[in-house]
Amino acid sequence: MQVTGTTLQHIYRKTSIALALMSGISIFAGAAAPAHAVTLLDILRGGPGANRGGPAGNGLPGVETGRAAMPSEKSLADPEPLPKVSGPRYYTYKPDAERVVKTAGFAAASAADGTRLITTAKVMAPAEIASALEAFYIKTAEPIWISNGDVNDKARGVLALFEKAGDYGLDPADYQLSIPALTTASVAAPADAPATLVNASVAPAAVTPADAHDAALMQFELALSEKALTFAQDMLRGRIDPNKVSGYHDFKRKDVKLSLVLPFAKEGTDAAAYLQGLAPAGPQFQALKAELARLRAEAVTEGPRVSLPGDLLLKPGKSSPDMANIIAAIQHTGSEALKTRHAATFAAYQQTPDYTPELVEVVKTFQAEVGLKPDGVIGAATVRKMVGHTSEDKIRKVVVAMEQARWLPDDLGSRYVFINQPAFTVYYHDKGVEQFSMRVVVGSKSNQTYFFQDEIETVEFNPYWGVPQSIIINEMLPHLRQDPSYLDRLGYEVSVGGKAVPSSSVNWFGSTEKVSVRQPPSSDNALGDLKILFPNSHAIYMHDTPSKSFFQRDMRALSHGCVRLAEPRKMAAAVLGTTIDDVNARIANGQNVATKVPVKIPVYVSYFTAWPNKDGVVEYFDDVYGRDDAMARAFDATTKVRGAQS
Questions:
Q1: Per residue in 420-429, pLDDT tens?
Q2: pTM of the entire structure?
């Protein structure tokens, strides 16, 4: 619009009248404005300082009233970029830094025999292990692994155990070490010594063949002790520090009493048996270990898999050139019960492309068997289950699961709640037995649920939903900048600095740091009728939801990070030790009430793409967040660092 001088004078007269009127209406003015605060340009842009997040007329940060609270012409025509709250990220995994073990003060250094040459040994180790080595050898002059000028049987037993590290989900390459090469002044080593080992480095400090051999033995002594400590630590707490994998991992690493390992190995007759006994004894780990052995044996004879397109979509009554392969895949991966039930259909099938009613029934049975919605529609999820995982795929999943199982307590407890995100399922255990399970919805890939453990403390009935800042900024703010009354119309409660205010009075172009938004209890509340709390820094909890249809989906990574329960009242009754009728009554009361659970119950918000069910049978799930891939990268980085120091 072109603005002439006459037009400006007209606008100015109207503006002066409007200002005079506004100055007498407290609901618009709030507090007295400075005399210099209003200009024509200010009015055209919505008032002095409008939408700049400055102090509000009512004294509340982020809140403005009257004309100043309205989005300005400038902001509507050329809006500021919307801020975003980003979630945690995945890291480039960096193993623990290593340092040289300090050998100068070792007790053996003053001995008259070749053990004095231990000071020439050069071994690198992470700080914890290096300190444990130094503390042990400062007090101990007699070697553990060397007897009568040669590597002893105790050492050979430990080396043989290292060769079998893969049985425990570890990597033998991390512990490789060679028996020292012999000199003309020494006795030949037995022919059955482990051959697939990496040579240990020996410092060229000796001047005679005997001294060179003694130096090599002392290098071996210290290096094997370092490997033994590493193996013990890995067996107990795992190779990988979960908190270095991503910001979604949150665990306190287990403390391993390294000071006990070498004394036990020295005094005991069978150091290998001692180290082997450090493996987790829990039933879940043992089931995974047995599955790993079975898979490795199976991989040797495994034939080719049936191939199906990953983007296949086939509905009942249609036809597909892949129909024959679909039936072949079901016959390969389906249970014996399924094959028996539909034996006549399989026998009569003539490799035709038509998806007939009889074949639909076969597919429905298969879908129900593998935990999918039995609707007969063959899509990506059904194809993945039909094709299945190769033995190598499963081995990778089991190895990751064994590593992650070490992050959890060896004994999960007789009463606990276990959420497995890739399975989209929660399991309730009591008296050491799984009592029930139910479907859950977990975080989407962009709003991932964390991997951690905690304790259930409270059940809140008819809850308020405190909207996280990430949702306020990422999802509500675009609406609020266009319509500041957006939250008022939806019935949300808004407060700034603890004081309730209308949504329409907040400057949504300013900072929302002190702005709180919550949804009162109602039938539309995002948390439904209840939530189950285990207070944590990630604001994750289990809760009800009005979006019941989500539980019918096979892929249920759909939430903002919290865990939605298909049967929340059943879970609430279980953790409170009461009945569902009692829970129903508390909800019907309509009051917002928080009830403490009688005893805190462990909850494991976990992420396992391979995990044993209540019968001990390992089940496999898709890696919905790609965390197994992140673990594989962490394994590779760890082995690379350890190999470089061998």
A1: 999 999 999 9
A2: 0.78
